[in-house]
Design brief:
334 residues, single chain, 4 strands, 11 helices, two-stranded antiparallel sheet, mainly alpha, globular
Length: 334
């Protein structure tokens, strides 16, 4: 498949897509109703959201203990959830890693950075980028994800947080999923992400993640434990906003597995001789490349980066704006 149809490759072999990332037309005046509805439908009915919803239903129906069981903390059901989450992470992250980085089925076609992950670099634990990434995901990310899930489900089971029955309030729960949740996720991610980019917090917490200048699937959830605690705290909103525990499950599954897609390192995945599928992760790749841009979600449903002047679409104009902002920031500090 000819990747020059979708982008260009420089002298170093790095690939840049022709299509520039831009926010969905949600906050546009005058309102473009048709474009808005089309974009929202495409966002909510995307294959990946459908996959996360299906995965959540399977997890909830077949791999989650009963409410009666979860009313008491006990090693049995907690271990079940831990092992289930570990298996999900291994299958999801591992599948992309095997296809793109071990089998290398499409080699560097559509790969942003032509180099492969470091295998002899003292920056990383064990000298290997992939080994460190797997360590942080499995030994920190999965346990923290599990801890939030166990605590939240225990609180729902005991009535410490209000549970809403879907049969009684379907419209409310659908609105919560389709409207409130994306807004809250966008705000939480942008605010906490900018926070851990500040001063000592970056070096203490976030630097572990940003060692992955050339990210791969496992880089997505490769974070310091403190960052995992901040990252998964997004579900604490349901301690004050009434919901169904199934919505908490969806939020945690999407937050735990979604980072793999945002860090594939490839702009498109080849699915056939002349077919490929966009990964829509160039926006976040630019964050790993330039550090001080694109703090928000790569879906850009809520365009915080555009509102606060931190967006970068990969163009020369965006480069100039970034350098001016960084120079002004440096001058302000003296």
């Amino acid at each position: 498949m000819d990747d020059t149809l979708y982008g260009t490759r420089d002298k170093r072999g790095d690939w840049t897509p022709n299509k520039r990332p831009k926010p969905l037309p949600v906050f546009v005046w005058p309102v473009q109703l048709r474009a808005l509805l089309r974009s929202l439908l495409a966002y909510h009915l995307s294959p990946i959201r459908a996959f996360f919803i299906l995965a959540t239903l399977i997890v909830w129906i077949y791999l989650t203990p009963s409410v009666e069981t979860m009313r008491e903390f006990s090693p049995g059901w907690i271990l079940l959830i831990l092992l289930r989450n570990a298996a999900l992470a291994l299958l999801f992250y591992g599948s992309f890693h095997v296809v793109l980085y071990i089998q290398r089925r499409q080699q560097t076609q559509f790969k942003y950075n032509s180099k492969w992950p470091d295998t002899n670099n003292t920056t990383f634990l064990f000298g290997s980028q992939n080994a460190e990434n797997v360590f942080w995901v499995m030994c920190s990310g999965v346990p923290v994800w599990t801890a939030y899930e166990v605590l939240t489900l225990w609180m729902f089971a005991n009535g410490y947080v209000q549970s809403v029955d879907f049969r009684q309030h379907p419209a409310y729960l659908v609105a919560l999923l389709l409207l409130f949740w994306p807004v809250w996720v966008g705000l939480h991610f942008y605010a906490t992400h900018r926070l851990i980019h500040m001063g000592p917090l970056y070096h203490i917490i976030h630097k572990v993640h940003h060692n992955n200048v050339n990210p791969g699937p496992w880089s997505g959830l490769s974070m310091h434990t403190f960052e995992h605690i901040i990252y998964f705290s997004v579900v604490l909103i349901f301690f004050i906003v009434p919901a169904h525990p199934l919505l908490v499950e969806f939020g945690l599954v999407a937050f735990a597995l979604g980072p793999a897609l945002g860090h594939l390192g490839f702009d498109r995945i080849v699915t056939g001789d002349k077919k490929s599928m966009s990964t829509e992760n160039y926006f976040h790749y630019l964050h790993h490349k330039y550090f001080e841009v694109n703090y928000g979600n790569s879906d850009r449903l809520i365009p915080f980066d555009y509102w606060f002047g931190t967006a970068h679409d990969g163009s020369l104009e965006a480069d100039e704006a970034m350098y001016k902002r960084m120079k002004a920031k440096k001058c302000a500090r003296g």
